[in-house]
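Propose amino acids for all 313 sites.
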Protein backbone atom coordinates (compact mmCIF):
# COMPACT_ATOMS: atom_id res chain seq x y z
CA UNK A 1 0.00 0.00 0.00
CA UNK A 2 1.97 2.96 -1.35
CA UNK A 3 -0.10 5.52 0.57
CA UNK A 4 1.26 4.05 3.81
CA UNK A 5 4.86 4.38 2.66
CA UNK A 6 7.01 7.31 3.80
CA UNK A 7 6.72 10.39 1.52
CA UNK A 8 10.16 9.69 0.01
CA UNK A 9 8.83 6.32 -1.15
CA UNK A 10 5.64 7.75 -2.66
CA UNK A 11 3.37 7.72 0.42
CA UNK A 12 1.10 10.39 1.84
CA UNK A 13 3.00 13.28 3.44
CA UNK A 14 0.35 13.79 6.11
CA UNK A 15 0.79 10.28 7.50
CA UNK A 16 4.36 10.94 8.58
CA UNK A 17 6.23 13.41 10.73
CA UNK A 18 9.91 13.86 11.55
CA UNK A 19 11.38 13.65 15.02
CA UNK A 20 14.52 14.09 17.09
CA UNK A 21 16.26 11.31 19.04
CA UNK A 22 13.59 9.34 20.95
CA UNK A 23 16.14 8.55 23.69
CA UNK A 24 17.95 11.84 24.45
CA UNK A 25 15.94 14.37 22.34
CA UNK A 26 19.08 15.63 20.55
CA UNK A 27 18.30 17.01 17.05
CA UNK A 28 18.58 14.46 14.25
CA UNK A 29 21.70 15.08 12.14
CA UNK A 30 21.17 15.87 8.45
CA UNK A 31 22.98 12.78 7.31
CA UNK A 32 21.45 9.31 7.63
CA UNK A 33 23.49 6.22 8.53
CA UNK A 34 21.48 4.31 5.94
CA UNK A 35 18.28 4.63 3.93
CA UNK A 36 15.62 2.01 3.32
CA UNK A 37 11.95 2.09 2.23
CA UNK A 38 12.12 5.89 2.09
CA UNK A 39 13.20 6.05 5.74
CA UNK A 40 16.38 7.73 7.02
CA UNK A 41 17.98 5.60 9.72
CA UNK A 42 19.84 7.94 12.06
CA UNK A 43 22.64 7.30 14.55
CA UNK A 44 22.30 9.84 17.37
CA UNK A 45 25.66 11.62 17.78
CA UNK A 46 24.87 12.27 21.46
CA UNK A 47 23.64 8.91 22.81
CA UNK A 48 24.29 6.38 19.96
CA UNK A 49 20.59 5.52 19.65
CA UNK A 50 19.60 4.32 16.17
CA UNK A 51 16.17 5.43 14.94
CA UNK A 52 14.19 6.52 11.91
CA UNK A 53 13.90 10.24 11.24
CA UNK A 54 10.39 9.74 9.81
CA UNK A 55 7.66 8.06 11.83
CA UNK A 56 4.07 7.34 10.98
CA UNK A 57 1.32 9.25 12.72
CA UNK A 58 -0.14 7.02 15.45
CA UNK A 59 -3.70 7.00 14.02
CA UNK A 60 -2.46 6.10 10.51
CA UNK A 61 -0.21 3.41 12.00
CA UNK A 62 -3.17 1.88 13.91
CA UNK A 63 -5.28 1.78 10.72
CA UNK A 64 -2.42 0.11 8.86
CA UNK A 65 -2.05 -2.42 11.67
CA UNK A 66 -5.73 -3.36 11.54
CA UNK A 67 -5.60 -3.62 7.72
CA UNK A 68 -2.66 -6.02 7.83
CA UNK A 69 -4.08 -8.04 10.71
CA UNK A 70 -3.68 -11.73 10.09
CA UNK A 71 -6.90 -13.69 9.97
CA UNK A 72 -8.06 -16.55 12.15
CA UNK A 73 -6.75 -19.21 9.82
CA UNK A 74 -3.23 -17.76 9.69
CA UNK A 75 -3.39 -17.39 13.48
CA UNK A 76 -4.28 -21.05 13.88
CA UNK A 77 -1.26 -22.06 11.80
CA UNK A 78 0.90 -20.10 14.22
CA UNK A 79 -0.48 -22.10 17.11
CA UNK A 80 0.28 -25.53 15.66
CA UNK A 81 3.22 -27.86 15.29
CA UNK A 82 6.83 -26.80 14.99
CA UNK A 83 6.13 -23.05 15.11
CA UNK A 84 4.24 -23.33 18.39
CA UNK A 85 6.84 -25.69 19.86
CA UNK A 86 9.63 -23.25 19.03
CA UNK A 87 7.74 -20.28 20.48
CA UNK A 88 6.74 -22.22 23.61
CA UNK A 89 10.33 -23.35 24.17
CA UNK A 90 11.50 -19.76 23.84
CA UNK A 91 8.81 -18.63 26.32
CA UNK A 92 9.89 -21.27 28.86
CA UNK A 93 13.51 -20.12 28.55
CA UNK A 94 12.46 -16.52 29.16
CA UNK A 95 10.39 -17.57 32.20
CA UNK A 96 13.42 -19.44 33.55
CA UNK A 97 15.47 -16.25 33.20
CA UNK A 98 12.76 -14.12 34.87
CA UNK A 99 11.68 -16.57 37.56
CA UNK A 100 15.13 -17.96 38.28
CA UNK A 101 16.07 -14.61 39.72
CA UNK A 102 12.81 -14.06 41.52
CA UNK A 103 11.13 -17.40 42.16
CA UNK A 104 8.07 -15.85 43.77
CA UNK A 105 5.44 -15.86 41.01
CA UNK A 106 3.15 -12.87 41.20
CA UNK A 107 0.90 -11.06 38.79
CA UNK A 108 2.02 -10.60 35.21
CA UNK A 109 0.72 -8.37 32.44
CA UNK A 110 1.82 -8.85 28.85
CA UNK A 111 1.32 -5.83 26.61
CA UNK A 112 0.76 -7.01 23.02
CA UNK A 113 0.36 -10.67 23.94
CA UNK A 114 -0.50 -11.82 20.40
CA UNK A 115 -1.89 -15.36 20.37
CA UNK A 116 -0.86 -15.79 24.01
CA UNK A 117 2.04 -18.24 23.93
CA UNK A 118 4.06 -16.40 26.57
CA UNK A 119 1.24 -15.93 29.10
CA UNK A 120 -0.07 -19.47 28.54
CA UNK A 121 3.37 -20.80 29.52
CA UNK A 122 3.61 -18.32 32.41
CA UNK A 123 0.21 -19.47 33.66
CA UNK A 124 1.45 -23.06 33.75
CA UNK A 125 4.29 -21.89 36.03
CA UNK A 126 1.87 -20.31 38.49
CA UNK A 127 1.90 -16.69 37.40
CA UNK A 128 -1.45 -14.86 37.63
CA UNK A 129 -1.47 -13.57 34.06
CA UNK A 130 -3.37 -11.01 32.01
CA UNK A 131 -2.76 -10.13 28.35
CA UNK A 132 -3.73 -7.02 26.44
CA UNK A 133 -3.84 -7.22 22.65
CA UNK A 134 -5.25 -4.91 19.96
CA UNK A 135 -5.79 -7.61 17.32
CA UNK A 136 -9.25 -9.21 17.53
CA UNK A 137 -8.11 -12.47 15.91
CA UNK A 138 -5.03 -12.83 18.12
CA UNK A 139 -6.94 -11.99 21.32
CA UNK A 140 -9.65 -14.53 20.42
CA UNK A 141 -7.09 -17.27 19.78
CA UNK A 142 -5.27 -16.51 23.05
CA UNK A 143 -8.61 -16.87 24.88
CA UNK A 144 -9.31 -20.20 23.19
CA UNK A 145 -5.94 -21.32 24.51
CA UNK A 146 -7.05 -20.47 28.03
CA UNK A 147 -5.40 -17.08 28.51
CA UNK A 148 -7.12 -14.13 30.17
CA UNK A 149 -6.93 -11.37 27.54
CA UNK A 150 -8.38 -7.89 27.18
CA UNK A 151 -8.76 -6.73 23.58
CA UNK A 152 -7.46 -3.19 23.35
CA UNK A 153 -4.57 -0.90 24.09
CA UNK A 154 -2.30 -0.27 27.07
CA UNK A 155 -2.82 1.62 29.34
CA UNK A 156 -6.33 2.73 28.30
CA UNK A 157 -7.93 -0.71 28.42
CA UNK A 158 -6.31 -2.22 31.53
CA UNK A 159 -9.22 -3.21 33.82
CA UNK A 160 -9.66 -0.70 36.64
CA UNK A 161 -9.35 -3.44 39.29
CA UNK A 162 -5.96 -4.60 37.91
CA UNK A 163 -3.83 -1.61 38.73
CA UNK A 164 -0.41 -2.96 39.80
CA UNK A 165 1.60 -5.90 38.49
CA UNK A 166 4.69 -7.65 39.79
CA UNK A 167 5.99 -8.24 36.24
CA UNK A 168 5.12 -6.64 32.91
CA UNK A 169 6.30 -8.24 29.66
CA UNK A 170 6.68 -6.32 26.40
CA UNK A 171 7.87 -8.55 23.57
CA UNK A 172 8.46 -7.12 20.09
CA UNK A 173 6.47 -4.00 20.95
CA UNK A 174 8.83 -1.17 22.01
CA UNK A 175 10.31 -0.73 18.52
CA UNK A 176 6.83 0.14 17.19
CA UNK A 177 6.45 3.33 19.28
CA UNK A 178 7.40 6.77 17.96
CA UNK A 179 7.95 7.78 21.60
CA UNK A 180 9.12 4.60 23.36
CA UNK A 181 9.99 6.48 26.56
CA UNK A 182 6.31 7.36 27.00
CA UNK A 183 5.44 3.67 26.99
CA UNK A 184 8.20 2.93 29.53
CA UNK A 185 6.93 5.74 31.78
CA UNK A 186 3.36 4.43 31.55
CA UNK A 187 4.53 0.88 32.35
CA UNK A 188 6.31 2.20 35.42
CA UNK A 189 2.98 3.43 36.82
CA UNK A 190 1.59 -0.12 36.57
CA UNK A 191 4.50 -1.87 38.32
CA UNK A 192 4.62 -2.60 42.01
CA UNK A 193 7.61 -1.03 43.81
CA UNK A 194 10.50 -3.34 42.91
CA UNK A 195 8.39 -4.81 40.09
CA UNK A 196 10.06 -5.92 36.89
CA UNK A 197 9.77 -5.19 33.20
CA UNK A 198 10.82 -7.87 30.70
CA UNK A 199 11.54 -6.61 27.19
CA UNK A 200 12.33 -8.21 23.85
CA UNK A 201 13.28 -6.16 20.80
CA UNK A 202 15.26 -6.89 17.62
CA UNK A 203 19.01 -6.47 18.25
CA UNK A 204 20.40 -3.78 15.96
CA UNK A 205 23.89 -4.92 17.00
CA UNK A 206 23.23 -8.49 15.88
CA UNK A 207 25.56 -10.15 13.40
CA UNK A 208 22.65 -10.84 11.04
CA UNK A 209 21.11 -7.35 11.00
CA UNK A 210 24.54 -5.76 10.56
CA UNK A 211 25.34 -8.13 7.68
CA UNK A 212 22.01 -7.41 5.99
CA UNK A 213 22.05 -3.62 6.57
CA UNK A 214 19.34 -1.76 4.66
CA UNK A 215 17.95 -5.05 3.27
CA UNK A 216 17.22 -6.43 6.76
CA UNK A 217 13.56 -7.20 7.44
CA UNK A 218 14.14 -5.46 10.78
CA UNK A 219 14.34 -2.13 8.92
CA UNK A 220 10.79 -1.34 7.83
CA UNK A 221 7.95 1.16 8.30
CA UNK A 222 6.52 0.22 11.69
CA UNK A 223 9.92 -0.33 13.35
CA UNK A 224 10.92 3.17 14.43
CA UNK A 225 13.68 2.48 16.99
CA UNK A 226 16.62 0.07 16.70
CA UNK A 227 18.07 -0.94 20.04
CA UNK A 228 21.48 -2.31 21.00
CA UNK A 229 22.32 -3.79 24.42
CA UNK A 230 23.75 -0.37 25.38
CA UNK A 231 20.97 1.88 24.09
CA UNK A 232 18.20 -0.32 25.51
CA UNK A 233 19.77 -0.17 28.99
CA UNK A 234 20.42 3.57 28.55
CA UNK A 235 16.77 4.33 27.70
CA UNK A 236 15.49 2.21 30.60
CA UNK A 237 17.86 3.99 33.01
CA UNK A 238 16.53 7.37 31.83
CA UNK A 239 13.03 6.19 32.81
CA UNK A 240 14.09 4.98 36.26
CA UNK A 241 14.75 1.28 35.70
CA UNK A 242 17.79 -0.69 36.87
CA UNK A 243 19.04 -3.45 34.54
CA UNK A 244 18.93 -6.92 36.13
CA UNK A 245 20.31 -8.48 32.93
CA UNK A 246 20.58 -7.70 29.24
CA UNK A 247 21.45 -10.48 26.81
CA UNK A 248 20.81 -11.59 23.26
CA UNK A 249 19.08 -14.66 21.87
CA UNK A 250 20.84 -16.50 19.06
CA UNK A 251 18.65 -17.59 16.11
CA UNK A 252 18.46 -17.23 12.30
CA UNK A 253 21.91 -18.78 11.83
CA UNK A 254 20.79 -20.19 8.48
CA UNK A 255 20.45 -16.56 7.32
CA UNK A 256 23.90 -15.67 8.67
CA UNK A 257 25.30 -18.64 6.72
CA UNK A 258 24.20 -16.98 3.45
CA UNK A 259 27.04 -14.50 3.91
CA UNK A 260 30.66 -15.44 3.19
CA UNK A 261 32.99 -16.10 6.08
CA UNK A 262 35.04 -13.06 5.00
CA UNK A 263 31.92 -10.83 5.27
CA UNK A 264 31.05 -12.30 8.67
CA UNK A 265 34.60 -11.80 9.98
CA UNK A 266 34.73 -8.19 8.75
CA UNK A 267 31.38 -7.42 10.43
CA UNK A 268 32.40 -9.05 13.73
CA UNK A 269 35.70 -7.12 13.63
CA UNK A 270 33.75 -3.87 13.16
CA UNK A 271 31.20 -4.63 15.92
CA UNK A 272 33.52 -6.24 18.46
CA UNK A 273 37.11 -5.18 17.61
CA UNK A 274 38.66 -6.98 20.57
CA UNK A 275 36.90 -10.34 20.00
CA UNK A 276 39.16 -13.23 19.09
CA UNK A 277 37.66 -15.24 16.25
CA UNK A 278 39.00 -18.53 14.97
CA UNK A 279 36.86 -19.63 12.03
CA UNK A 280 35.81 -23.27 12.29
CA UNK A 281 36.80 -25.75 9.56
CA UNK A 282 34.43 -25.97 6.58
CA UNK A 283 31.67 -28.55 6.30
CA UNK A 284 28.30 -29.24 4.71
CA UNK A 285 26.04 -28.13 7.59
CA UNK A 286 25.06 -24.43 7.76
CA UNK A 287 26.31 -24.25 11.36
CA UNK A 288 29.86 -24.72 10.09
CA UNK A 289 29.34 -21.79 7.69
CA UNK A 290 28.90 -19.43 10.66
CA UNK A 291 32.29 -18.28 11.97
CA UNK A 292 31.21 -18.10 15.63
CA UNK A 293 29.51 -20.77 17.72
CA UNK A 294 26.12 -19.94 19.28
CA UNK A 295 27.87 -19.68 22.67
CA UNK A 296 30.37 -17.15 21.27
CA UNK A 297 27.61 -15.11 19.62
CA UNK A 298 25.73 -15.11 22.93
CA UNK A 299 28.85 -14.09 24.86
CA UNK A 300 29.46 -11.16 22.50
CA UNK A 301 25.74 -10.13 22.56
CA UNK A 302 25.49 -10.56 18.78
CA UNK A 303 22.27 -12.66 18.75
CA UNK A 304 19.28 -11.68 16.61
CA UNK A 305 16.93 -10.76 19.47
CA UNK A 306 17.72 -8.59 22.46
CA UNK A 307 16.11 -9.30 25.82
CA UNK A 308 16.39 -7.58 29.16
CA UNK A 309 14.93 -7.66 32.64
CA UNK A 310 14.65 -4.29 34.38
CA UNK A 311 13.62 -3.43 37.91
CA UNK A 312 11.56 -0.40 38.75
CA UNK A 313 13.81 1.68 41.01
ZN1 LIG B 1 20.18 10.49 21.38
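Proposal:
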Amino acid sequence: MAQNAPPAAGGLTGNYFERNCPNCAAPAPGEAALQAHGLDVINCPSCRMTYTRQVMDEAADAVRYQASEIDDEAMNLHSLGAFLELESTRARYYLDRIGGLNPQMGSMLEIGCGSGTFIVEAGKRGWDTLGIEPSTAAAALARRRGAKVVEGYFPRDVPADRRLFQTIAVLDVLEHFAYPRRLLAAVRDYLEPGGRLFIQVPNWDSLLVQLEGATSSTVCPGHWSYFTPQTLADMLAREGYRAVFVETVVSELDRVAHFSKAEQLATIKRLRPSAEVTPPAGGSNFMTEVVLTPAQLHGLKLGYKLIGLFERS
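The chain has a mean pLDDT of 90. The pocket of zinc ion is lined by residues 21, 23-24, 26, 44, 46-47, 49 (CB under 6 Å).
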